[in-house]
Amino acid sequence: MDVNDIIKPENKVYGKPVLMNDNNMHYCPGCSHGVVHKLVAELLDEMGVAEKAVGIAPVGCAVFAYNYLDIDWVEAAHGRAPALATAISRLYPENLVFTYQGDGDLAAIGTCETIHAANRGENITIIFINNAIYGMTGGQMAPTTLIGMKTATTPYGRRVDLNGYPLAITDLLARLDGTCYVTRQSVHTPAAVRKAKAAIKKAFQNSLDKKGTSIVEIVSTCNSGWKMSPAAANDWMAEHMFEKYPLGDLKNV
Amino acid sequence: MEEEIKLMKGNEALAMAMIRYGADGYFGYPITPQSEVLETLMAQKPWETTGMVVLQAESEVASINMVYGGAASGKVVCTSSSSPGISLMQEGISYMAASELPALIINVMRGGPGLGTIQPSQADYFQATKGGGHGDYHLITLAPSSVQEMCDFVGLGWDLAFKYLTPAIILADGVVGQMMEKVVLPPQRKRLTDEEVRQRCPWAANGRKGMRKKNVITSLELDPSLMEVNNERFQRTYKKIEENEVRFESIGTEDCDYLIVAFGSLARISQKAVEMARKRGLKIGILRPITLWPFPKAEVARLSERVKGILVPELNAGQMIEDVRLAAGSGVRVEHFGRLGGIVPSPDEILDAFEKLFLGK
Amino acid sequence: MKVEIVIAGFGGQGVLSMGKILAYSGLMEDKEVTWMPAYGPEQRGGTANVTVILSDEKISSPILNSYDIAIVLNQQSLDKFESKVKPGGVLIYDNYGIHHAPSRKDISVYNVNAMEATFDLKNDKAYNMVVLGALLKVCPVVSLESVLKGLKKSLPERHHHLIPLNEEAIKKGMSLIDK
Predict the structure, then answer these.
(1) Of B33, B181, B269, the CB nearest to C61
(2) By residue range, what is the domain housing residue A216?
């Protein structure tokens, strides 16, 4: 079997999603973003909705999401993605509009926009990458940073008296009447990736069916920010993050 | 719907004009003295007639970013607010300017700074004409002085915004917003279909229909050499606007000895002062900039060579006067008369100020 | 023709809506009109005033410091606007609750007992229409027909049955001037 046999279509067992281009990703090796990007790209293609998808990119590590997925994108101001998504979804009710946000964007500076878009039940999907740290700006504390966790702005560990408590914003969003599907997933094992993909698919379908706001939190690692190897970061996440941010559906209407 | 003559408040005229000029969306948050805009839209229920989207947002920050989203998708969208709310919107406005998006923002100014007062003011002149948010940008700034212009400038604002792909702002004040006058509403302009939007705005992010090339709306460019190229392109647009879109109204400027330069409601009040002055044999003309940016520099320069003095009455501590002085040069005396914090002067007060400053009375 | 009017009183007396009706009536006669309220946070109580200008020509300032006609419906408004009536102008006031009557001699002063007349009508919402009637009798700045036409145009259909009541109130107000 030479290379020409290997690349025959009938021998293909796995391929890069067609909506994902060849641009070099700026994400660190081991980062969860790449996996989630791939899931989004695969789903938009498999569901046949690439023509009506509009993504809203955040400010944070995923600010350049638009460079990797070949759909239409708008790059929002920090935290405002749900407001942009609200308008586009209302102006183009047939489109599939989703935001892709990190924990600082969604749960700190954009808390207001997030909660109100969800409370209005906008027919959008919010993909929420929670890695408990600000990656792009160099590893500062996020609203979701765990107690005791060291970051650039909590060099001796997060302290409740100084910094308050980690914010499980997804729990809060599940309480709102406007949300139809709120789930917490991860992508640290092949099984978890498969479950996360099913969750995002369900969320996209809800948006297409105009069922209200769907939120998929992906509890993630930031091995650079956490100063760990990718494998160690995965272990640390399973050991510590899942306790505060347990996986599973919080709401499924 | 045909052309229609109505009696209404400036704020109501703004709302009716949005519907008549075929708006796709309005996103706003209540604030005095312009809450009638959202109230009128909600009462009109345009979503049942033209299909226009109207949404009360959770804040001005959210409403301007909804406008950003709508504009990025190629739709005809706007928001309105008053001074404190417009301050909150500056981030979103800067993003839209940087993303070269057409949108309309309306500021029915009230007295500041801070929470200030709900009474009329023109103290946001600098904010509107010199940028407002961060970065090197301008907004096409239209200053209505009548209820009719509140209506007309909604259409004009969108036309200019789409022509140059940059946001436009209507800089009104509490007087023009709260006053009722006769207004001729334009015939109903048809909203564009999604297909027509795609033709008019092939750059818009609204889905890769037919798997066309993807569209990305972003203001981010980390490479400074490319960001400079972007900035140079913005500046070329501003230059074109300065060359083509200066608008002003002149009243009695051809035979005048003195000139008043005033905008918005103060131009109307000054006009009455000038009528009174003419009865006393004083020849004063009025130049009313309609576009505050681009500012009618050439006309100010032309008139400044002929007149003995220029009075700039404003509802602020002296903002437009800086542009008047720059345009007029040093050959002519340029004086300011301002009332602050929401106080609106009467015509007599303006005439008194003129006589005191220029005639030594 | 150009007439510059100020109407002032307590919030809730119908000052702003009386101004609106005047403006609408002017519109019915193809006049240029402006209606400029002194706006504030008050809904009821407090003071309210509105400047209405009716003119055959384009109107410059909607804000004035002197008026052809002042209609004042409480003491504060009388104190504020008496001096701002142009010489030879008209001041109409309601004596109800007034303890310092106007003193100027260079203007025409009319005391209208509109409040009492409104009690007679047993319709306290008609107060401003009684005052409007008095104004129309003193200075027919617009015709009664235009007022009725304006009401019909400005009121929603479901309130059209109130127009005869308004007409009655206006006529009552007109009759007060004969006395």
Answers:
(1) B269
(2) 25-252
Q: What value does the mean pLDDT take over residues B157-186?
A: 97
Angle between helices C127-138 and C15-28 (to 10 degrees): 50
pLDDT tens profile B73-129: 999 999 999 999 999 999 999 999 999 999 999 999 999 999 999 999 999 999 999
Average pLDDT over residues B234-249: 98
pTM metric for this prediction: 0.95
CA separation, residue A135 to residues A75, A80, A222, B220 (Å): 18, 18, 7, 18
Q: Angle at which helices C144-154 and C163-178 pack, to 10 degrees?
A: 150
The continuous run of DSSP H or E covering C90 comes out as strand C85-93
Domain count of the fold of chain A: 1
Q: Do B66 and A84 touch (CB under 8 A)?
A: yes
As annotated, the residues of chain B forming the CATH 3.40.50.970 domain(s) are 4-195
For residue B103, what are its two tokens? 């949108």
Q: Do chains B and C touch (3 or more CB pairs under 8 A)?
A: yes
Give the whole-angstrom CA distance, residue B75 versus residue B206. 9
Which residue on chain A is closest to B101 by alpha carbon? A74
Residue C43 in this model has a pLDDT that exceeds 70? no
Burial class (CB in 10 A: 0-12, 13-18, 19+), B34: buried
More confident residue, A6 or A140: A140
The CATH architecture of the domain made up of C2-178 is 3-Layer(aba) Sandwich (3.40)
Task: Say what the pLDDT of residue C123 is.
Answer: 86
Judge whether A19 lies within some domain. Answer: no
What is the third-level CATH fold of B249-359? Rossmann fold (3.40.50)
Rounded to the nearest angstrom, the minimum Cα separation between B358 and chain A is: 50
Nearest 5 degrees, angle CA B277-CA B278-CA B282?
Answer: 70
Average pLDDT score over residue span B213-240 = 97
Determine the distance in angstroms separating the CA of C116 from the nearest CA of chain B, rounded to an integer: 31
At C140, the amino acid letter reads: P
In this predicted structure, the answer to whether residue A87 has a pLDDT above a threshold of 90 is: yes
Chains meeting B at 3+ CB pairs closer than 8 A?
Answer: A, C
Q: For residues C129 and A9, which has the higher predicted lDDT (pLDDT)?
A: C129
Residues of B in contact with C20 (CB under 8 A): 7, 180
| Mean pLDDT value across chain C | 92
Looking only at Cα atoms, what is the longest distance across chain B? Answer: 74
Q: Which chain B positions have a beta carbon within 8 Å of C63's beta carbon?
A: 175, 265, 269, 344, 346-347
Q: Does domain B4-195 have CATH number 3.10.105.10?
A: no
Cβ atoms of C178 and C52 within 8 Å: the answer is no
> The domain that contains A126 carries what CATH number?
3.40.50.970
| Residues of chain C contacting B172 with CB distance shorter than 8 Å | none
Mutation site for C-interface testing, chosen from B7, B149, B249 by largest number of C Cβ within 10 Å:
B7
Asked if A88 lies within 8 A of B95 by C-beta distance, the reply is: no
Rounded Cα–Cα distance for residues A176 and A121 (Å): 9
Three-class SS of B91-129: HHHHHHHHCCCCCEEEEEEECCCCCCCCCECCCCHHHHH
pLDDT score of B93: 98
Query: What is the spatial distance between Cα B39 and Cα B295, in angstroms, rounded to a whole number?
Result: 33
Q: How far apart are CA B98 and CA A164, in angstroms?
A: 36
Answer whether C61 sits within 8 Å of B349, measured CB to CB.
no
